[in-house]
């Protein structure tokens, strides 16, 4: 029993971020971020705030951590990251010394919660992204579970907000490379420790939801900011998969500047100011998020049907818990009905079926390789679609079914 307790204590030990792998590189990279992405930070909101601090951020893109670290200096934070990052060979030698806390994405992770609590009790600071994944469309996540308020109560410390605008447009989910524009990151106190202790969970939840709202497309328009790249539109078909003219799905293609439908010829130009301009037709959604909302509405119509069901062929991969490497396990059908998402096919040559209830799944981890990750008991199951498409649609269907199964119709 004693040996087990010692082992558990060791597993929950949280390393303070290394000065040489955290603070020093962050300072050195600051002028580079300023030059490349016109990164501007306002850290005055936390200047006189003493730790421990639980910081929450809006999850715009994979660049968020860079901008957040700069904005939160000189304080160092244990950053909560996806366990998937711990499988990246390039990060493996550094990520633990960086002080990162691994967490299962879009899933309850008791060990990660205990590690965060332990870090704060050790007078460390912790940074989390409650949305659980980067934005697909340049706006906040469709729905965040109310359990975030219970989590904040449990942590029992001052809560800070680190918020970025422009980070999504610098590195959208669907884009390969980076775009030159402008990123503004600000810090503020969201909840004092006294407020955390005295406010009802419902009020804490509302304050968090309101704080995390953003829309980079509207922000870009209002501030007249250009985002430049030689291949500005390349990859947009990953999220804008449905033609608004002929309603065909996954017939969209892109070149450096345009998004076009191969079924009906509909074509729009994507400009440096974030405008979608019609080339050969008068009709268009003039912002990316509005077109994405059209795709969402179509998914809502699908899941509202009594006999809703979708199934696509997929390859099945599973993460090896010893090596953290994903290994091919088989192939089959990746499906979704009104209540479950799952896979039926093979595992190491034998029949295998796996499924999760959608009532407990507010969103999906979608991969740019056109796949979906499902997590259970620290194991990541990865399903890569054979047709190299469908992940965005599955993600929207999941979010709409979560709303359907939990009586949530309006955006929170």
Number of strands: 18
Query: Count of helical segments?
Result: 12
Beta-strand fraction estimate: 25-35%
Summed over residues and divided by their number, the pLDDT gives a mean of 88
Give the overall shape: globular
Considering the protein shown, what is the CATH homologous superfamily of the largest domain? Glycerol-3-phosphate (1)-acyltransferase
SS-based class: alpha/beta
What is the third-level CATH name, the topology of the largest domain?
A: Glycerol-3-phosphate (1)-acyltransferase
Listing every helix as H and every strand as E from the N terminus to the C terminus, the arrangement reads HHEEHEHEHEHEHEHHHEEEEHEEEEEEEH
Low-confidence stretches: 1-10
The quaternary structure here is single chain
Notes on the structure:
The protein is α/β, with parallel strands linked by helices and 412 residues long. The protein folds into 3 domains: 2-223, Glycerol-3-phosphate (1)-acyltransferase (3-Layer(aba) Sandwich), CATH 3.40.1130.10; 236-302, no CATH class; 306-405, Roll (PH-domain like), CATH 2.30.29.30. The chain has helices at residues 2-11, 19-37, 64-72, 92-95, 110-121, 147-155, 167-170, 193-198, 201-212, 216-223, 288-303, 391-405; strands at 39-42, 53-57, 77-82, 101-103, 125-128, 158-165, 183-191, 252-254, 258-261, 267-270, 276-278, 309-319, 326-337, 340-347, 350-357, 365-367, 371-376, 379-385. α2 (19-37) packs across α3. The longest helix is centred in the N-terminal third of the chain and has 19 residues, at 19-37. The radius of gyration is 22 Å and the shape is globular.
